[in-house]
Amino acid sequence: MAERTGVCVIGGGPAGTTIAAGLARLGHVVTLLEAEQFPRRHEGESLPPSIVPLLDQLGVRAEVERAGFFRPTAAIVHWAGQRRPQTDWGGSPGFQVDRGRFDRILLSAAARAGVHVLERATARPPVRRGPRDWTVEALTPAGPLAIDAEFIVDASGRRGILGGRKRRLTAPTVAVYGYWSGVGPAGGETRVEAGEDRWYWAAPIPDGTWNATVFTSSERIKGRPGDLAAAYRQLLADSVLLSEIGCGRLETTVRVCASSPQADDSPVGVDWIKVGEAAFAVDPISSQGVQTAIAQALGGTCVAHTLLAGAGTEAAVTYYANRLREDADRHLRQAGVLYHEQWRHRPTAFWAARSRPAADEPRFPDRPLDGGQLLVRAPAVRFVSAPVIRGDFVRTERAIVHPNLDRPIAFLGGVPVAPLLDRMSHPTPVWRLVTDNSCSDGTNRSLAILRWLWNRGLVEDAPPG
Ligand SMILES: Cc1cc2nc3c(=O)[nH]c(=O)nc-3n(C[C@H](O)[C@H](O)[C@H](O)COP(=O)(O)OP(=O)(O)OC[C@H]3O[C@@H](n4cnc5c(N)ncnc54)[C@H](O)[C@@H]3O)c2cc1C
């Protein structure tokens, strides 16, 4: 006899726990299957400061802050010919976590939100019997378990349990890594170093070990499974910053995993969704994998909620596919620039294959507006329907497009922008626009929105006369 659930989430990493908790809070019956028993080791231990607002949204910030993870304020970076002994982040620090405990905090939060969490439950690929009719078999210590579900979330990491074509977005890169003890001071600085055909990353983990990782082309280690450990030790010995770590004690086997960024071509359907690395895996050079997985899963929660409600399916599917594509493009641009910096210093094939010169980002002026100024909508503004998140759902709203926007915009600062531009088909004074109902959220905010539109050329000075 199979257990019955509304949503079956496969994978209890940051993406799976985020969407599971979100859907449970929205009233869905959610079961989460996680193959491992937490805490377990997992790569992805540097979390930049920009993760903090997401931890707030998940309601786990205080718990993460109390967990005793390191709060790095500096790193030693050898990159693009520069040897910067210390890089101060400036603002508040991020976290250097061990993912076993970090992920357990998120998993416990999901359980508190009402998710039925099963650890040591390894799911087999789900079988779709018909629309909203799935069966998932899982292996558990108590024997096989069958779960019937209406909706499947694939949060199983970069391999993905739902299948589908994974498109590698750059040249193939692998990470070779191990955990070391007897090395340097606990809480020491993160180390990043560019080499000839590889780059290195090492950081102290709060459990007292150091993770030392070498990122290199897959050809470099292909066909060397027997002497992987020896090759890894040699790569560490060749490094300026990590060679002393290689003199410590290796506490784990040497592991190797794919680390090229990749995207799944079909991330969502009417009764399933892929989140986190199952949908899009970032290049670890950005240290943004965990926060990207959480952010995507937050958006994915509204997408899944809309699909489960059975209304707005097309909008939800389009919204999610577009967002993932935009995330991937932005991420590849940012990561490519880092490789490009090093390529300019050392133009080897490894760096060339991954580098992208910085694109000329459009620069918009920051001009003030005068209350008496007469403004009119620019002729290039067009109105379209676009899917956006409204509350907990994806909805289709009227939006504007313009050559200076990289995507349709429906709201600015929470204010619907199409009605504002609607009435600007004829010259209207700024003072009237800022006091108008369509942007009644306070004069300063309304003025800021108008200035944003004006500086991007979406509204213009009315022609004289
Ligand atoms: C070498 C390397 C270094 C990285 N460094 C960083 C970094 O410094 N900072 C950063 O933010 N990101 C980093 N990343 C990326 C980061 O690890 C991922 O982006 C992040 O873990 C993705 O989260 P996720 O929830 O999608 O998947 P995961 O964290 O991989 O979670 C997937 C979960 O699904 C479970 N699972 C898999 N199959 C099944 C199954 N059949 N049944 C049940 N459960 C299953 C797994 O046990 C796992 O717990 C790095 C990645 C690599 C490869």
Automatic annotation (TrEMBL):
Origin superkingdom: Bacteria
Record-level Gene Ontology MF annotations: monooxygenase activity
InterPro entries according to UniProt: FAD/NAD-bd_sf, Flavin-dep_Halogenase_NPB, Flavin_halogenase
Signal peptide region: none
Protein name: NAD(P)/FAD-dependent oxidoreductase
